[in-house]
Amino acid sequence: MTSYFLNLTPLLEIVVRNPIMDKTFPADGRVAAVIDTGFEGFLLVPEDVFEKLSLNQLAVDKRELTLPNGRRVYSTGTYCEVVIPDLDVRLDGFVETLERVREVVAGADLLQNLKLTLNYCLRIVEVEACR
Amino acid sequence: MGTLTISIDDEVEKKLREVATRLYGSRRGGLSNVIESALKNYYTLLDKAASSEASFKALKGDTVVAEANTLDELAEILKKKRIEPRGLRIVSSKPISSTAYTGYRIIKA
Fold it and tell me: Count H helices, E strands: chain B?
C-alpha cells in the first residue's frame, strides 16, 4: 500500500536516498511521509534522518521558511532522491531539515509529479505517476 | 484550419458561450477564438511542467567536478572519477526559491 489515511492525515510511503553518499532511509522498508500541499518545498525530514542519510556531510544550503504562524526560520538542505516503490517513481529534489521537525513531509514540489486523489468520504488516498 | 466535433459538459458550454459573447460579441468565430486561446494557455502550462526536469552539478569549492541529469548518474560519475563526496556542494539547474511557505498563508485583514 503506497498511500493511505492515518486518522485524517494522508500519508505516502516512500524511500529517501542520498545517491552521492550511497545512503538510504529507512535502511529496510519504507517511511510514511505526510502529504502536505501547504508546504511549498520538496521534502522536509527530521534532523536525525538528515544525518542518517549523511546529507549533513555534503555542503548544505540554507533557506528561509515561513511557518503557518508567520514566524520565519532557516532550514538546512541539499538534494536527495525520493523513491515511491509501488509506482516505480524516482524523483530528485531539495531535502531540508529544521529543528524539532518530527515527521517526514512531502511538499508541493514533490507532489507536482503525481496525480493525487484524497477521498475523505471513503478514506482512500490514491496516488499515480503523471503520464 | 482544423474542424473538431467535441462534447463538453453543459455548464462548461454555458460558460464558454458567455465568455465568447463577452469578448467577441456576436462576431463569427468567437467560440473558436476562446477555445483556441484556452488551449494555447493550457499547452504552455503543460510544456512548463514537462520542462521542469533539472540537471545537477557537483562542486568542489568553485570547480564543477561532475554534471548529470539525475543524482544517480551524478553519483556514478563521482564514483568513476574516484572523487571523495564529503563536502561536495550539489546544485540544480532548477534553483530552489530563497523562501518557502510551510503551511497556510495567513492573510492579515
Answer: 3, 4
Nine cell digits for residue B19 = 465568455
Give me the residue from A44, A65, A79 closest to B71, CB to CB: A79
Q: Measured between CB atoms, does A101 come within 8 Å of chain B?
A: no
Question: Does A40 lie at the interface with B, CB-CB under 8 angstroms?
Answer: yes
Q: Quick check: B54 and B94 in contact, CB under 8 A?
A: yes
pLDDT band, very low/low/confident/very high, at B107 (cuts 50, 70, 90): low
Instruction: Summarize pLDDT for B24-64 with one digit per residue, the tens.
Output: 998 889 999 999 999 998 888 877 766 667 799 999 999 99
> CA of A42 to nearest chain B CA: how many angstroms apart?
10
Q: How far is A29 from chain B (nearest CA, A)?
A: 20
Residue of A nearest to B73 (CA): A19
**B15 min Cα distance to partner chain A (Å):** 26
In sequence order, the 6+-apart residues with CB closer than 8 A to the CB of A40 are A107, A108, A109, B97, B100, B101, B102
User: pLDDT tens digits for A31-64?
Assistant: 999 999 999 999 999 999 999 999 999 999 999 9
ipTM of the complex: 0.88
